[in-house]
Design goal:
CATH class of the largest domain: Alpha Beta
Distance between the termini: 50 Å
Largest sheet: 9 strands, mixed
Strand content: 15-25%
Number of helices: 12
Length: 326
Protein backbone atom coordinates (compact mmCIF):
# COMPACT_ATOMS: atom_id res chain seq x y z
CA UNK A 1 0.00 0.00 0.00
CA UNK A 2 1.33 3.44 -0.94
CA UNK A 3 2.05 6.17 1.58
CA UNK A 4 1.35 9.88 1.44
CA UNK A 5 3.49 12.17 3.58
CA UNK A 6 1.75 15.41 4.53
CA UNK A 7 3.45 18.55 5.79
CA UNK A 8 1.14 20.87 7.73
CA UNK A 9 2.68 24.34 8.17
CA UNK A 10 1.03 26.16 11.06
CA UNK A 11 1.23 29.74 12.26
CA UNK A 12 -1.46 30.80 14.71
CA UNK A 13 -3.94 28.30 13.31
CA UNK A 14 -4.37 26.32 16.50
CA UNK A 15 -8.14 26.51 16.10
CA UNK A 16 -7.91 24.75 12.72
CA UNK A 17 -4.93 22.40 12.84
CA UNK A 18 -6.68 19.46 14.51
CA UNK A 19 -9.28 19.32 11.75
CA UNK A 20 -6.56 19.49 9.10
CA UNK A 21 -4.57 16.65 10.67
CA UNK A 22 -7.60 14.47 11.33
CA UNK A 23 -8.76 14.85 7.72
CA UNK A 24 -5.44 13.21 6.76
CA UNK A 25 -5.36 10.59 9.50
CA UNK A 26 -8.87 9.41 8.62
CA UNK A 27 -7.97 8.64 4.98
CA UNK A 28 -8.74 5.01 4.13
CA UNK A 29 -6.89 2.60 1.85
CA UNK A 30 -3.57 4.43 2.16
CA UNK A 31 -0.73 4.83 4.66
CA UNK A 32 -0.13 8.39 5.88
CA UNK A 33 2.38 10.37 7.91
CA UNK A 34 1.87 13.92 9.14
CA UNK A 35 4.45 16.53 10.10
CA UNK A 36 3.09 19.64 11.81
CA UNK A 37 5.62 22.47 11.72
CA UNK A 38 4.67 25.25 14.12
CA UNK A 39 6.40 28.43 12.98
CA UNK A 40 6.58 30.07 16.42
CA UNK A 41 2.83 30.49 16.86
CA UNK A 42 1.60 32.68 19.71
CA UNK A 43 -1.79 30.98 20.09
CA UNK A 44 -2.56 27.43 21.28
CA UNK A 45 -0.99 25.74 18.22
CA UNK A 46 1.75 24.17 20.33
CA UNK A 47 -0.66 22.56 22.76
CA UNK A 48 -2.83 21.20 19.95
CA UNK A 49 0.15 19.98 17.91
CA UNK A 50 1.77 18.18 20.84
CA UNK A 51 -1.54 16.58 21.77
CA UNK A 52 -2.03 15.28 18.22
CA UNK A 53 1.47 13.79 18.22
CA UNK A 54 0.80 12.12 21.59
CA UNK A 55 -2.47 10.64 20.33
CA UNK A 56 -1.23 9.13 17.06
CA UNK A 57 2.26 7.81 16.21
CA UNK A 58 1.74 8.84 12.59
CA UNK A 59 1.96 12.50 13.66
CA UNK A 60 5.19 14.39 14.31
CA UNK A 61 5.32 17.90 15.73
CA UNK A 62 8.08 20.48 15.44
CA UNK A 63 8.15 24.00 16.83
CA UNK A 64 10.36 26.88 15.73
CA UNK A 65 11.76 29.21 18.35
CA UNK A 66 11.41 32.14 15.94
CA UNK A 67 9.19 32.69 12.94
CA UNK A 68 10.98 31.78 9.69
CA UNK A 69 8.22 32.37 7.14
CA UNK A 70 5.97 29.91 5.37
CA UNK A 71 8.25 29.08 2.42
CA UNK A 72 11.12 28.07 4.69
CA UNK A 73 8.65 25.90 6.58
CA UNK A 74 7.58 24.32 3.28
CA UNK A 75 11.18 23.59 2.37
CA UNK A 76 11.88 22.07 5.77
CA UNK A 77 8.91 19.78 5.19
CA UNK A 78 10.16 18.79 1.74
CA UNK A 79 13.44 17.67 3.29
CA UNK A 80 11.44 15.40 5.65
CA UNK A 81 9.49 13.59 2.93
CA UNK A 82 10.17 9.88 2.36
CA UNK A 83 6.79 8.44 1.29
CA UNK A 84 5.65 7.55 -2.21
CA UNK A 85 3.54 10.67 -2.56
CA UNK A 86 3.38 14.01 -0.79
CA UNK A 87 1.46 17.18 -0.18
CA UNK A 88 1.66 20.46 1.70
CA UNK A 89 -1.61 21.15 3.48
CA UNK A 90 -2.20 24.49 5.13
CA UNK A 91 -3.35 24.13 8.73
CA UNK A 92 -6.62 25.91 7.89
CA UNK A 93 -7.51 23.55 5.02
CA UNK A 94 -8.65 19.91 4.92
CA UNK A 95 -8.70 17.00 2.49
CA UNK A 96 -11.94 15.28 1.60
CA UNK A 97 -12.69 11.62 2.43
CA UNK A 98 -10.97 9.28 -0.03
CA UNK A 99 -8.83 12.00 -1.62
CA UNK A 100 -5.53 10.21 -1.03
CA UNK A 101 -6.67 6.81 -2.26
CA UNK A 102 -8.03 8.40 -5.42
CA UNK A 103 -4.80 10.27 -6.16
CA UNK A 104 -2.53 7.36 -5.25
CA UNK A 105 -4.48 4.97 -7.46
CA UNK A 106 -4.00 7.08 -10.58
CA UNK A 107 -0.28 7.60 -9.84
CA UNK A 108 0.14 3.88 -9.16
CA UNK A 109 -1.41 3.13 -12.56
CA UNK A 110 0.48 5.87 -14.41
CA UNK A 111 4.15 6.16 -13.47
CA UNK A 112 4.47 9.10 -15.86
CA UNK A 113 2.12 11.18 -13.68
CA UNK A 114 4.06 13.41 -11.28
CA UNK A 115 1.22 15.58 -9.95
CA UNK A 116 -2.51 15.22 -9.33
CA UNK A 117 -5.15 17.78 -8.50
CA UNK A 118 -8.91 18.18 -8.37
CA UNK A 119 -11.55 20.58 -7.24
CA UNK A 120 -11.58 22.41 -3.91
CA UNK A 121 -14.70 23.19 -1.92
CA UNK A 122 -14.45 26.80 -0.77
CA UNK A 123 -16.27 27.22 2.51
CA UNK A 124 -15.90 28.93 5.88
CA UNK A 125 -16.82 25.68 7.66
CA UNK A 126 -15.90 22.31 6.10
CA UNK A 127 -18.34 19.48 6.80
CA UNK A 128 -16.77 16.15 5.81
CA UNK A 129 -19.75 14.24 7.18
CA UNK A 130 -21.83 15.76 4.38
CA UNK A 131 -19.31 14.97 1.63
CA UNK A 132 -20.71 13.10 -1.36
CA UNK A 133 -18.05 11.75 -3.75
CA UNK A 134 -18.39 12.14 -7.49
CA UNK A 135 -17.35 9.38 -9.93
CA UNK A 136 -13.61 8.79 -9.71
CA UNK A 137 -12.59 9.80 -13.23
CA UNK A 138 -9.16 11.17 -14.11
CA UNK A 139 -7.74 12.80 -17.20
CA UNK A 140 -3.99 12.43 -17.70
CA UNK A 141 -2.57 15.49 -19.47
CA UNK A 142 0.92 16.00 -20.81
CA UNK A 143 2.96 18.42 -18.77
CA UNK A 144 3.44 20.83 -21.65
CA UNK A 145 -0.32 21.04 -22.20
CA UNK A 146 -0.81 21.92 -18.53
CA UNK A 147 1.86 24.61 -18.73
CA UNK A 148 0.27 26.02 -21.87
CA UNK A 149 -3.11 26.21 -20.14
CA UNK A 150 -1.64 28.16 -17.23
CA UNK A 151 0.24 30.43 -19.61
CA UNK A 152 -2.85 31.11 -21.73
CA UNK A 153 -4.97 31.83 -18.66
CA UNK A 154 -1.98 33.52 -17.05
CA UNK A 155 -2.96 32.08 -13.70
CA UNK A 156 -2.66 29.09 -11.39
CA UNK A 157 -5.15 26.35 -12.31
CA UNK A 158 -4.13 23.99 -9.48
CA UNK A 159 -6.05 24.48 -6.21
CA UNK A 160 -3.19 24.13 -3.76
CA UNK A 161 -4.92 22.04 -1.06
CA UNK A 162 -5.79 19.43 -3.70
CA UNK A 163 -2.27 19.00 -5.08
CA UNK A 164 -0.64 15.62 -4.36
CA UNK A 165 2.73 14.98 -5.96
CA UNK A 166 5.17 12.18 -6.51
CA UNK A 167 7.83 12.50 -3.82
CA UNK A 168 10.71 11.54 -6.09
CA UNK A 169 9.75 14.40 -8.40
CA UNK A 170 9.44 16.83 -5.52
CA UNK A 171 12.92 15.88 -4.34
CA UNK A 172 14.30 16.38 -7.86
CA UNK A 173 12.61 19.77 -8.17
CA UNK A 174 13.83 20.99 -4.79
CA UNK A 175 12.24 23.57 -2.54
CA UNK A 176 10.18 26.69 -2.98
CA UNK A 177 11.74 29.89 -4.29
CA UNK A 178 11.97 32.23 -1.31
CA UNK A 179 11.62 35.21 -3.64
CA UNK A 180 8.02 34.16 -4.44
CA UNK A 181 6.13 34.40 -1.14
CA UNK A 182 2.71 34.71 -2.77
CA UNK A 183 3.09 32.81 -6.04
CA UNK A 184 5.49 30.02 -5.11
CA UNK A 185 2.77 27.41 -5.59
CA UNK A 186 2.22 28.44 -9.21
CA UNK A 187 5.92 28.19 -9.97
CA UNK A 188 6.10 24.82 -8.21
CA UNK A 189 3.28 23.33 -10.32
CA UNK A 190 4.96 24.63 -13.48
CA UNK A 191 8.17 22.90 -12.40
CA UNK A 192 6.29 19.65 -11.78
CA UNK A 193 4.62 19.83 -15.20
CA UNK A 194 7.99 20.38 -16.88
CA UNK A 195 9.01 16.93 -15.60
CA UNK A 196 6.01 14.73 -16.32
CA UNK A 197 2.29 14.28 -16.85
CA UNK A 198 -0.44 15.70 -14.61
CA UNK A 199 -3.68 13.92 -13.66
CA UNK A 200 -6.82 16.00 -13.18
CA UNK A 201 -10.16 14.99 -11.69
CA UNK A 202 -13.52 16.65 -11.16
CA UNK A 203 -13.65 15.00 -7.74
CA UNK A 204 -13.58 17.45 -4.85
CA UNK A 205 -10.25 16.65 -3.26
CA UNK A 206 -10.04 19.27 -0.52
CA UNK A 207 -11.71 22.01 1.47
CA UNK A 208 -10.29 25.50 1.09
CA UNK A 209 -11.36 27.33 4.20
CA UNK A 210 -12.41 30.94 3.66
CA UNK A 211 -11.88 33.16 6.69
CA UNK A 212 -10.83 36.66 7.70
CA UNK A 213 -7.07 36.05 7.72
CA UNK A 214 -6.44 33.92 4.60
CA UNK A 215 -2.92 34.58 3.36
CA UNK A 216 -4.25 35.30 -0.14
CA UNK A 217 -6.27 38.29 1.06
CA UNK A 218 -4.79 41.55 -0.13
CA UNK A 219 -3.00 40.03 -3.11
CA UNK A 220 -5.19 41.27 -5.91
CA UNK A 221 -4.80 43.81 -8.66
CA UNK A 222 -1.31 45.26 -9.00
CA UNK A 223 0.22 43.06 -6.27
CA UNK A 224 -1.21 39.89 -7.81
CA UNK A 225 -0.02 40.90 -11.28
CA UNK A 226 3.51 41.48 -9.98
CA UNK A 227 3.61 38.17 -8.12
CA UNK A 228 2.35 36.23 -11.14
CA UNK A 229 4.90 37.95 -13.35
CA UNK A 230 7.71 36.95 -11.00
CA UNK A 231 6.52 33.33 -10.86
CA UNK A 232 6.30 32.89 -14.63
CA UNK A 233 9.62 34.67 -15.13
CA UNK A 234 11.30 32.43 -12.55
CA UNK A 235 9.98 29.31 -14.27
CA UNK A 236 11.12 30.38 -17.72
CA UNK A 237 14.54 31.29 -16.37
CA UNK A 238 15.17 28.05 -14.47
CA UNK A 239 13.10 25.15 -15.82
CA UNK A 240 11.62 25.97 -19.19
CA UNK A 241 14.54 24.30 -21.02
CA UNK A 242 12.86 20.99 -20.10
CA UNK A 243 9.76 21.86 -22.17
CA UNK A 244 9.49 21.39 -25.96
CA UNK A 245 8.91 24.51 -28.08
CA UNK A 246 9.34 26.72 -25.05
CA UNK A 247 9.65 29.87 -27.18
CA UNK A 248 5.95 29.68 -28.05
CA UNK A 249 5.04 29.38 -24.38
CA UNK A 250 7.24 32.33 -23.44
CA UNK A 251 5.56 34.47 -26.10
CA UNK A 252 2.13 33.47 -24.76
CA UNK A 253 3.24 34.32 -21.24
CA UNK A 254 4.48 37.76 -22.29
CA UNK A 255 1.18 38.43 -24.04
CA UNK A 256 -0.77 37.33 -20.98
CA UNK A 257 1.29 39.60 -18.75
CA UNK A 258 0.76 42.53 -21.11
CA UNK A 259 -3.02 42.13 -21.05
CA UNK A 260 -3.10 41.71 -17.27
CA UNK A 261 -0.86 44.75 -16.80
CA UNK A 262 -3.21 46.76 -19.03
CA UNK A 263 -6.18 45.82 -16.86
CA UNK A 264 -4.25 46.82 -13.75
CA UNK A 265 -3.24 50.13 -15.37
CA UNK A 266 -6.88 50.89 -16.13
CA UNK A 267 -7.90 50.19 -12.52
CA UNK A 268 -5.06 52.37 -11.22
CA UNK A 269 -6.11 55.23 -13.51
CA UNK A 270 -9.69 54.94 -12.28
CA UNK A 271 -8.35 55.12 -8.72
CA UNK A 272 -6.38 58.28 -9.53
CA UNK A 273 -2.92 56.68 -9.35
CA UNK A 274 -1.55 57.99 -12.66
CA UNK A 275 2.10 57.29 -11.84
CA UNK A 276 1.57 53.58 -11.23
CA UNK A 277 -0.80 53.44 -14.19
CA UNK A 278 2.10 54.62 -16.36
CA UNK A 279 4.38 51.99 -14.81
CA UNK A 280 2.06 49.15 -15.75
CA UNK A 281 1.48 50.51 -19.24
CA UNK A 282 5.24 50.55 -19.81
CA UNK A 283 5.43 46.98 -18.53
CA UNK A 284 2.63 45.90 -20.88
CA UNK A 285 4.22 47.50 -23.95
CA UNK A 286 7.66 46.11 -23.13
CA UNK A 287 6.39 42.54 -22.89
CA UNK A 288 4.10 42.64 -25.93
CA UNK A 289 4.18 45.65 -28.30
CA UNK A 290 0.95 44.39 -29.88
CA UNK A 291 -0.91 45.45 -26.75
CA UNK A 292 -1.10 48.94 -28.28
CA UNK A 293 -3.71 47.54 -30.71
CA UNK A 294 -5.84 46.15 -27.88
CA UNK A 295 -9.16 47.97 -27.56
CA UNK A 296 -8.53 48.36 -23.86
CA UNK A 297 -5.33 50.26 -24.61
CA UNK A 298 -7.16 52.63 -26.97
CA UNK A 299 -9.96 53.10 -24.42
CA UNK A 300 -7.51 53.93 -21.69
CA UNK A 301 -5.67 56.33 -24.02
CA UNK A 302 -8.94 58.26 -24.45
CA UNK A 303 -9.52 58.33 -20.73
CA UNK A 304 -6.00 59.61 -20.12
CA UNK A 305 -6.42 62.31 -22.74
CA UNK A 306 -9.85 63.60 -21.79
CA UNK A 307 -10.26 62.39 -18.22
CA UNK A 308 -12.29 59.51 -16.83
CA UNK A 309 -15.31 61.72 -16.19
CA UNK A 310 -15.65 62.86 -19.81
CA UNK A 311 -15.34 59.30 -21.14
CA UNK A 312 -17.95 58.08 -18.64
CA UNK A 313 -20.39 60.78 -19.79
CA UNK A 314 -19.81 59.92 -23.45
CA UNK A 315 -20.43 56.25 -22.76
CA UNK A 316 -23.68 57.09 -20.99
CA UNK A 317 -24.79 59.23 -23.93
CA UNK A 318 -24.07 56.28 -26.22
CA UNK A 319 -26.08 54.00 -23.96
CA UNK A 320 -23.09 51.95 -22.84
CA UNK A 321 -22.19 50.91 -19.31
CA UNK A 322 -20.21 53.51 -17.38
CA UNK A 323 -17.67 50.90 -16.26
CA UNK A 324 -16.11 48.73 -18.92
CA UNK A 325 -12.56 48.08 -17.85
CA UNK A 326 -12.01 44.64 -19.38
Amino acid sequence: MSRVDVVVPCYNYGRFVRQAAESVLSQEGIHVRVLIIDDASTDDSEAVGRQLAAEDPRVEYRRHATNTGHLRVHNEGIDWLTGDYCMLLSADDMVTPGAFARAAAVMDRHPEVVLTYGRAIETPEPRPEQYTPVPDEWKVRGGRAVIETMVRLWNNIVPTPTAIGRTATQKAIGGYDLALPHSGDLEMWLRYAARGAVAVTDARQAYYRRHAVNMSKGYTGARECTQLQEAFDAFFEKDAHLVPAVGELKALSDRGLAVQALYVANDLFNAGDVRRCDDFLRLAAARWPGIREHRGWRRLAWKRRFGAGVVTCLRRLCGRPAQATR
